[in-house]
Write a structure and sequence with these properties.
Helices cover about 25% and strands about 15% of the residues. The chain is built from 13 helices and 17 strands. A six-stranded mixed sheet has the order 3-2-4-17-5-15, sandwiched between helices. A three-stranded mixed sheet has the order 7-10-13, with no helix packed on it. A two-stranded parallel sheet has the order 1-16. The protein is globular and about 65 Å long. The structure holds zinc ion. Its main location: membrane. One of its GO terms (biological process) is biomineral tissue development.
């Protein structure tokens, strides 16, 4: 073994374990860690299959070590999926949700339509609508649901049921006259009309369902919660009227949604890392609860993100360092301390008397602290890198390696025997096999559950207290 061997080993460990590598301190990583991060080839195959979650390790010490593991399925290796939109290197939620729900890449700002549709141009929509895995599941006789912590008309959930040249056309009150005259429907109306039998819809955004200026049932005195609909319709009543509330749900559940995840994105846009990570913990708990209600023998669970953020964590912090704490050094340029968590851009950019703010003079552990950013922006931006895909359950092995984001729903549909590609679902072997048990007691191929989280670094439980949620940003990117 040559003199350079420890250097090469440490560098290899850094790559395998997704850890920082310091060429000046190649012995930074203890030898024990090198052994742990190297998974034998024959074991990797098992980890990628339908194994219990404990089988596949998290990237070692992803949050600096010393914290408990999260609830999500483990992702043993591959980076995941490429998130770019057809016209954008750094994507938005509309184009990415269309990719991982409808199976085609799309332009930013558009939902449930192909890349032939130009944002804001209603007249480019007709004939270019694409359907989602929610529709495929519904057509396959399954119950379906949408669960989100954002408004249900937000870009991410709306790609499951709507087709719109603009993600912000929540109600007809947000649409320009030419779009209304061109026959385009607002997103809230499409939620009620496009797929009328969605069994479960949980989320916000009620005001887009009620006539303009109608008082909100929960916040009757507040102007900003009043209804927005110009057509004077009450879509909640319309939805109720279309339902047989005593009916029985058909077997099989396909659920998608932010669960707790959509607000992670909002926390990052505000530059409030604690808010964002608190929401990530809530998503983690929701995924854990879903895991306890289902079995990996008959349920494919997929956890992924629509896109990343310019959010980072560094500074050679020691094991056990508080995630919201300081790096154990000062800048060797401005001689000031810095936090381990930082943003590439956003509202956390702060100069005091012509210099970078000294973070030790402020409460950087506060729930609303805005981590320092290199470039000032009112809202922090998304990131353009790949995001992780965590999968477990039947055919979880289909989701490994680096893929395009729009591959995800096709793999899930294949596993669930829904959608157009079902040639593998019949045959003598399939007929002889016992029918998997459904979550709801019926016979189904597989139940499905997909959650999304707007950070790609879903990690361990974090030692954070409950913090007040950031206000939901106005229409726009998200
Ligand atoms: Zn966003």
């Amino acid at each position: 073994m040559g003199a350079r061997a420890p250097f090469r080993q440490a560098r290899a460990a850094a790559v395998l374990g997704n850890r920082p590598f310091c060429p000046k301190r190649p012995s930074f990583f203890p030898k024990k860690l090198l052994i742990k991060t190297k998974i034998p080839e024959k074991e990797r195959g098992a980890l990628l299959g339908a194994e219990p979650w404990r089988a596949a390790p998290l990237p070692p010490a992803f949050w600096g070590g010393g914290h408990r593991r999260g609830e999500g399925p483990r992702r043993p290796g591959g980076p995941g999926v490429r998130t770019y939109n057809t016209n954008a290197q750094v994507p938005d939620s509309a184009g990415t949700a269309t990719a991982y729900l409808c199976g085609v890449k799309a332009n930013e700002g558009t939902v449930g339509v192909s890349a032939g549709v130009t944002r804001d141009q209603c007249n480019t929509t007709k004939g270019r609508e694409v359907t989602s895995i929610l529709r495929w599941a519904k057509d396959g006789g399954k119950s379906v649901g949408i669960v989100t912590t954002t408004r249900v008309t937000h870009a991410t959930p709306s790609a499951a049921y709507a087709h719109s040249a603009n993600r912000d056309w929540y109600s007809d009150g947000e649409m320009p006259p030419d779009a209304l005259e061109g026959g385009c429907k607002d997103i809230a109306r499409q939620l009620v009309e496009n797929i009328p039998d969605i069994e479960v819809i949980l989320g916000g955004g009620r005001k887009y369902m009620f006539p303009k200026n109608a008082s909100d049932v929960e916040y009757p005195g507040e102007e900003r919660h009043r209804g927005t609909r110009l057509d004077r319709r009450d879509l909640v009543q319309a939805w109720r009227d279309s339902k047989d509330i005593n009916g029985v749900m058909p077997p099989g559940v396909m659920m998608m949604g932010g669960l707790a995840g959509g607000r992670i994105d909002h926390g990052h846009h505000e530059g409030k890392a604690k808010q964002a990570l608190h929401e990530a913990v809530e998503l983690d708990r929701a995924v854990g609860l879903a895991a306890r209600l289902t079995s990996p023998r008959d349920t494919l669970t997929v956890v992924t993100a629509d896109h990343s953020h310019v959010f980072t964590f560094g500074g050679y912090t020691p094991r056990g360092n508080p995630i919201f704490g300081l790096a154990p050094m000062q800048s060797d340029v401005d001689r000031k301390p810095f936090t381990a968590i930082l943003y590439g851009n956003g509202p956390g950019y702060k100069m005091v008397a012509g210099e970078r703010e000294n973070v030790s003079t402020v409460d950087f552990a506060h729930a609303n602290y805005q981590a320092q950013a290199a470039v000032p922006l009112r809202q922090e931006t998304h990131g353009g890198e790949d995001v992780a895909v965590f999968a477990k359950g039947p055919m979880a092995h289909l989701l490994h390696g680096v893929r395009e984001q729009n591959y995800i729903p096709h793999a899930m549909a294949y596993a669930a025997c829904i959608g157009p590609n079902r040639a593998h679902c019949g045959g003598a072997a399939a007929a002889a096999a016992p029918a998997p048990r459904s979550l709801l007691g019926g016979d189904v191929e597989h139940d499905l559950l997909v959650a999304e989280v707007a950070v790609h670094r879903l990690g361990a439980r974090l030692p954070v207290r409950h913090v007040q949620a950031a206000p939901e940003p106005a229409a726009g990117r998200g």
